[in-house]
Write a structure and sequence with these properties.
The protein is mainly alpha-helical. It has a domain at 176-288: Serine Threonine Protein Phosphatase 5, Tetratricopeptide repeat, CATH 1.25.40.10. The chain is 79% helix and 0% strand. It starts with a helix and ends in an 11-residue tail after the last helix. 42% of the residues are buried.
Length: 296
């Protein structure tokens, strides 16, 4: 059956489900098997939702899953209700990001109530991603990544927590909340430097923390660098550490050319991503009150 046929069938199922719900409210039904009618309606809403999905009518699918979720709640099936809210959220994601967030929040409330914090954290990440890409509200994205990190930490899932925290640090630095970014980078670096598998990443986090310090205050960056080398001797031989020393020297001499040269040389071996480029430019601008400038 094509999409429009599925859609017609779904609309009929929705009407039928509604009838069942209404009749379950009648006095006699309440005494005799009202719940059976609600269970049947639940199943119909879910089937209708899946047909709407085939027809790519995402709003209707989201709405049908929501109806099923509410009925599951009425039947005290919390887990099924949460699952339907998540399905609703995934459908709405394609058509109405704000409605998707509302449904995912409803699912999160149920999961946290049930003590299922890991799965609640996962849905906080989905909401954060909607705020990042669809609604472009970075402050709200940060809040949901922080909440996810909190839940992961509580469940001892430290590497998942760190992933969320690094997202927070990236955005915090972009929003010029450098202190917050520094704290996260230092904390994550400290927790990864003793792990043989993650040790390699620690130098990247110390590097990013030092850059955040540098934007605020060059002396702070110097002191931080000494502290990081002491904490993590392997950092001293890294290209990141050597670059920082060259940049600090160029800054002291207020030498724009030397600064640009050091960045260029580093970039020719390890490509600078957008974030690093932004931070390095912010530092460069403070040399001799430089104009907008460029790094290349």
């Amino acid at each position: 059956m094509d999409g429009s046929g599925k859609e017609r069938e779904a609309v009929q199922l929705m009407a039928e489900a509604e009838k069942r719900v209404k009749s379950s409210h009648s006095f006699l039904r309440g005494l005799f098997g009202g719940n059976t009618k609600v269970e049947e309606a639940c199943e119909m809403y879910t089937r209708a939702a899946n047909m709407f999905k085939i027809a790519k009518n995402w709003n209707a699918a989201g709405n049908a899953f929501c109806q099923a979720a509410k009925l599951h709640m009425q039947l005290q099936s919390k887990h099924d209700s949460a699952t339907c809210f998540v399905d609703a959220g995934n459908a709405y994601k394609k058509a109405d990001p704000q409605e998707a967030i509302n449904c995912l929040n409803a699912a999160i409330d149920i999961y946290t109530d049930m003590g299922r914090f890991t799965i609640a954290a996962k849905h906080h990440i989905t909401i954060a991603e909607i705020y990042e890409t669809e609604l472009v509200d970075i402050e709200k994205a940060i809040a949901h990544y922080e909440q996810a990190a909190d839940y992961y930490k509580g469940e001892e899932s430290n590497s998942s927590a760190n992933k969320c925290l690094l997202k927070v640090a990236t955005y915090a630095a972009q929003l010029e909340q450098y202190q917050k970014a520094v704290e996260i980078y230092e904390q994550v670096a400290a927790s990864t430097m003793d792990n043989p598998l993650l040790k390699y990443s620690a130098k990247e986090y110390f590097f990013k923390a030092a850059l955040c310090h540098f934007i605020v205050d060059e002396l702070n960056a110097k002191l931080a660098l000494e502290k990081y080398e002491e904490m993590f001797p392997a950092f001293t031989d890294s290209r990141e550490c050597k670059l920082l020393k060259k940049l600090l020297e160029a800054y002291e001499e207020q030498n724009c050319e030397a600064y640009t040269e050091a960045v260029k040389e580093f970039d020719s071996i390890s490509r600078l991503d957008q974030w690093l480029t932004t931070m390095l430019l912010r530092i460069k601008k403070s040399i001799q009150g430089e104009g907008e400038g460029d790094l290349k």
